[in-house]
Amino acid sequence: MSRPMKKTGFRQGIHVTSATQKEAIGTRRILRDGREFTYCKAGASALLVGKLAMAAASASVVSNKACPAIAIGDTQFVFTGDSMTYAADYFKGGFFIINDATGEGAQYEIDASTAVTAGTTLTITLVESVRVALTTSSEGSLVHNPGMATVESATEENLPVGVSPVAVPIGHWYWAQCKGLANVLISGTVAVFDMIVPGATAGSVKTVPDWASATDPNMPIIGQCYRAGVDTEYSLVKLIL
Hints:
mainly beta, Elongation Factor Tu (Ef-tu), domain 3, seven-stranded antiparallel β-sheet, six-stranded antiparallel β-sheet, 15 strands, 0% helix, globular
């Protein structure tokens, strides 16, 4: 059964980071002033306060792979991919999705995943049991939670997760702001009410480009400028992630 949304009793402060996990990844937290945060883990690089964090890209080594035969009601199976290295529970809070053939279109939340080092298999435990039996012709993928191993990225087309309100050491858990007014690093010049997208400088944001002249217009909208800002300084953006 899917877990209910947590509303009170949070074990980690908004401006606190932790080397150990205190909340379920992806947990949402709403403050009285309307700001909203999601619980994340920093990746292999530290994150700086006021910078936009991006989700780590999904890996091809666990995408579109042949499934084992899985019966209705099963909650655990061995997934086979290409050579891969993942820490235990890297995929916890993410999803096992069926891309093609029998069972296609289904999505299952992952409760646990075993560690693997330069191997091709790992054991996956699901939160809910399989609803449609899968065959070896079914194709599936493991997709980590967007909050796992977040990074500051200069690749503007990546999926934005949120803005850290505090400096985050490598591998620490933290709250990333995803909605409401946030003080964010600006790239270029932004004007009040401009729509905002990730900037070319890692962790920054900028005004949405002119789609007609942009070299690559496929950038995610992250919010709207609330206070005008200039290059390399910080200003308020209303996040809508």
